């Protein structure tokens, strides 16, 4: 894989433990993990001498390119985050540049759990998982066209085709109260674990231990249940686009978890 298809490996983002079999730096792996994770966790420094702890928030977001909306996951992409205009992170993201970089520094984490890996000894228990950590600089999106584009993409990243099946466009108040941060990613890495348990040779030779201890993988995925209508709902049947989305995501989640048992990353 060429350098143009991957993030640079730096001391900050290099996967050390099990780095060779599990560490990934390519755009496709990292971007697909981020765009399929329902909630991203965003960590940022607090500019206060009296508070030594960085802050962390759960947020909605997606990776894409406003300049080239048709860009695939294998291309360089920006991260867009959605929030309320007066929140602390959104205010910081609108502040002047920091150091030599333009924007406010953020660390973004995304994680999928694909299975419980149960071994002969607790020390070898694990998860099958797909995780990504990204570093970048955030600035507020000022252009109305780009802001609307990002709002639509973030909405449809929650439920495909939801934007066009609601009351749009947003009102002036909604546009004013909503802030979108655009994060220019400077480096990132993913870590992916798939397969079954791996036990010590000595334990594998212990027939008494193996006779009483179940080992294997419990596939794990997020499942969407049957939609429950609000008391104010006036639509008699669940819309087809919503049914299709939920069924597709349930199949995808199960397939990912079962493939991970087989060692497919």
From TrEMBL:
<dbReference type="InterPro" id="IPR024747">
    <property type="entry name" value="Pyridox_Oxase-rel"/>
</dbReference>
<dbReference type="InterPro" id="IPR012349">
    <property type="entry name" value="Split_barrel_FMN-bd"/>
</dbReference>
<dbReference type="Pfam" id="PF12900">
    <property type="entry name" value="Pyridox_ox_2"/>
</dbReference>
<protein>
    <recommendedName>
        <fullName>Flavin-nucleotide-binding protein</fullName>
    </recommendedName>
</protein>
């Amino acid at each position: 894989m060429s350098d143009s298809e991957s993030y640079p490996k730096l001391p900050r983002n290099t996967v050390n433990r099990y780095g060779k079999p599990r560490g990934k730096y390519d755009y496709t792996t990292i971007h697909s993990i981020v765009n399929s994770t329902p909630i991203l966790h965003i960590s940022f420094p607090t500019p206060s001498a009296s508070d030594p702890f960085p802050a962390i928030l759960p947020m909605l977001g997606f990776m894409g390119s406003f300049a080239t909306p048709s860009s695939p996951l294998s291309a360089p992409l920006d991260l867009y985050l959605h929030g309320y205009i007066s929140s602390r992170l959104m205010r910081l993201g609108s502040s002047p540049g920091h150091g030599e970089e333009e924007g406010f520094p953020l660390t973004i984490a995304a994680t999928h759990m694909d299975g419980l890996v149960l071994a002969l000894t607790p020390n070898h228990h694990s998860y099958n998982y797909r995780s990504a950590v990204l570093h970048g600089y955030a600035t507020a999106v000022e252009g109305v066209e780009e802001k609307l584009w990002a709002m639509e993409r973030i909405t449809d990243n929650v439920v495909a085709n939801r934007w066009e099946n609601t009351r749009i466009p947003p009102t002036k108040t909604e546009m004013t109260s909503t802030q979108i941060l655009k994060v220019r990613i400077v480096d990132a890495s993913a870590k992916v674990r798939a397969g079954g348990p791996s036990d010590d040779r000595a334990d594998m030779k212990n027939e008494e231990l193996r006779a009483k201890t179940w080992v294997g993988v419990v596939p794990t995925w997020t499942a969407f249940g049957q939609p429950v209508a609000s008391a104010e709902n006036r639509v008699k049947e669940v819309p087809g686009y919503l049914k299709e989305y939920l069924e597709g995501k349930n199949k995808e989640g199960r397939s990912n978890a079962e493939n991970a048992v087989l060692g497919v990353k």
